[in-house]
Amino acid sequence: MTEAARLSALFRDAGAVSVETSVLQPAETLLDLYGEDIRARAYVTSDPVLGEQMLRPDFTVPVVQQHMAHGAEPARYTYQGLVFRSQEAGTGRASEYLQVGYEVFDRADPAAADAEVFALFAQALDGRGLRAATGDIGILRAAVEGLSTSERRRAALLRHLWRPRRFRALLERFGKPVPSARLAALDVETGAPEIGLRDASDVSQRIAALKEDAQVAPLDAGEVAALSAILDVAEMAPLALAKLRDIAQTLPAITPALDRLEARLDALAARGVDVDALAFEGSYGRTSMEYYDGFVFGFHGESGPPIATGGRYDALTRVLGQGREIPAVGGVIRPELLEAGA
């Protein structure tokens, strides 16, 4: 039996229903979710009937669409097939590869669902010598949402949470007063010729927004330090939780997310996972697809890409559900990497 067949059988035995999705996905949906940045890591084509399409960059979005349109609750799905990711020359990374996945849609107990998926993946990968890592994007989102600053600045930081360098640059910029030279540059004379796609109204609105932002006080230094401390956390999970509880004294907005982390650790322990030996990193998962908004995890070998990744994506179901939503968590395994290391 191949690894793909073994994993599919394991997931079906756990109660998952096998589903299939089209290799071609509507580009409009993915662009709405991730913006133009998705073009840099996807293959785009144009169809005279269907319009702009993308070769499937992953399975989660189409599986969520299928569930929100037709699925009953609770539901568990499994799938296998190729995904396609554009790679920079010289990286040696595959531009197409096989994934086998498992997704859970269940609103009864999110912590238990997180533990179910992680424990099932740990079982599937047992004995392979892999290192498990976990994190929680929900803690980072709560920290940003709790900053004492304008809604515009919080939104900008959240938008770039997945781009660590840009995020750090924004923190530094928002932590200082706007330079006088930049303020002076905003005093643009009207009546200049219109060049490009933006008209005078667009430019005026943008200048007004920049002037409004320039009046916002710099970020609180203590809050910035606390946010940086969250990103620097790298401990076994119980010790990480204790550190994060200390940080919550400065950023109390993260407390509900920490309560969810604690409930998750209890659920993992109940499933036999040794949480005292489970690594937790405050910045883990920040370079993956942007739909994760809570628990994230991965299983890694000594080198190369992760063998398995996964996480919680409740917000994605809200976006694609057109008014409906359901807590959801899942992950994928790359069977060819398992076979290469066998």
Automatic annotation (TrEMBL):
KW Transferase (keyword) present: yes
SUPFAM superfamilies for the chain: Class II aaRS and biotin synthetases (SSF55681)
Listed InterPro entries: aa-tRNA-synth_II/BPL/LPL, HisRS-like_core, HisRS/HisZ
Matches recorded under Gene3D superfamilies: Bira Bifunctional Protein, Domain 2 (3.30.930.10)
GO molecular function: glycosyltransferase activity; histidine-tRNA ligase activity
Residue ranges occupied by any Class II Histidinyl-tRNA synthetase (HisRS)-like catalytic core domain in the UniProt entry: 5-333
Keywords tagged on the record: Glycosyltransferase, Transferase
Cellular component annotations (GO), alphabetically ordered: cytoplasm
Any Gene Ontology biological process: histidyl-tRNA aminoacylation
Name of a matching Pfam family: tRNA-synt_His
KW Iron-sulfur (keyword) present: no
Residues binding L-histidine, per UniProt: D58, F59, T60, R85, Q99, E103, R286, Y291, Y292
Database matches in PANTHER family: HISTIDINE--TRNA LIGASE, MITOCHONDRIAL-RELATED (PTHR43707:SF1), HISTIDYL-TRNA SYNTHETASE (PTHR43707)
Protein name per UniProt: ATP phosphoribosyltransferase regulatory subunit
Organism of provenance: Litoreibacter ponti
